[in-house]
Amino acid sequence: MSNTTVTFDIILGQGMTLVFVEWTDSAGNAFTSGGSLAFNDAVQHPVVKITDGGGNAVTDAEVSYTDGAGNAITSKWTGSYVVKLSIDTGKYAIDGMDICEYTIVVDNEGRGEYKIISIEIGGNYKKNYAIGESFDSYGMTVYGIYPDGERVELGSNDYSYTGGEELVEGDNTVTVSYGELSASIVVKAGELVEGGILSLDKYVSKKLYLITIIAVGALLLACVVMAGVIIGNNKKTRDYLHEIADLRRGGSEINSSDNAYNKGGDDVED
Fold first, then answer.
1. Do the bridges between strand 170-178 and strand 17-24 make them parallel or antiparallel, or are there none, so unpaired?
2. Three-class DSSP category at 149
3. Residue 39, exposed/middle/buried by CB under 10 A (0-12, 13-18, 19+)?
4. Selection from 211, 133, 190, 143 nearest residue 167 by Cα
5. Cα torsion through 227, 232, 238, 241, rounded to 10
6. Start-to-end C-alpha separation, the chain
7. Which of 17, 150, 163 is closest to 77 using CA atoms?
8. Is the pLDDT of residue 200 over 60?
């Protein structure tokens, strides 16, 4: 098999300059297409160093970069990417590759993978149970959190939970696991309260029930004491009114006697 060499002729337009491009990393080191860059928690890609025929740097060239599809570059996390160079083609002609392939790999601390790094538990699930019941995950939602804060809902087959098999009185911890990641919630178990305002979720803690009964009893006692005070005050008021009435009646009797005496005196004088 013979080797074949392919050559290209670069035709320069009037006033155009031939420039040479060399791909480098952000530190200026030579970069070969297909090479790798270590994760640095920022969008990154290989860049070009542009020189003229004499090896002098060309600094006035208008250079821009896009991904292989012509879109803005978003290469931050580990993976394989392509960067494409664009230059002022009306002024310069390029001698070299205008496309470079590269891979971003994890850094020395193992960071850089765009993967779920934590989980959160939400939703409207049952939180109060009877003693001995098992945890019911209906309504529970588990979210996966990515390094940039993006949240995605996990399917019920993607995670598992433990600790809710047979609930005991008081607080019970249920742990949800997704791979090596986990998060916990606390649910309560207590005796069943039949009806009434206490059974908001049908089941409440026995301690809460007793505290509520004591509070209601204290409120009733306070009402009784207040009623006694009011009744006592009413009795004092009645007694006071009776005294005033007696004084008025006594005054009337005295006035009547005085009138009779005066009348009798008048008869004598006549």
1. unpaired
2. coil
3. buried
4. 133
5. -120
6. 174
7. 150
8. no
- Residue 234 has a pLDDT of 59
CA angle 115, 124, 163 (to 5 degrees): 70
Is residue 143 within 8 A of residue 123, CB to CB? The reply is no
Q: What pTM, to 2 d.p., does this model score? A: 0.56
Dihedral angle at the C-alpha atoms of 193, 197, 203, 207, nearest 10 degrees?
Answer: -70
Residue 9: is it exposed, middle or buried by C-beta count within 10 angstroms (0-12/13-18/19+)?
exposed
pLDDT at residue number 92: 83
Beta pairing class for 35-38 and 63-67: unpaired
**Type of residue found at 225:** V
Here the tokens at position 125 are 């699930």
Read off the tokens for 12.
Answer: 């320069």
Residues 172, 188: contact at Cβ < 8 Å? yes
Q: How many residues does the chain have?
A: 270
d(CA 129, CA 191): 8
Which amino acid type is present at position 3?
N
Supply angle C-alpha 153, 158, 162, rounded to 5: 105
Residue pair 154/144 in contact by the 8 Å Cβ criterion: yes
Q: What is the pLDDT of residues 27-49, one digit of tens each?
A: 899 999 999 999 999 999 999 99
Confidence of residue 124 (pLDDT cuts 50, 70, 90): very high
Find all residues with CB under 8 Å of 135, minimum gap 6, and list them. 126, 129, 161, 163, 164, 165, 167, 172, 174, 187
Instruction: HSE, CB side, 13 Å, CA atoms: give it for residue 39.
Output: 17
Residue type, 247: L
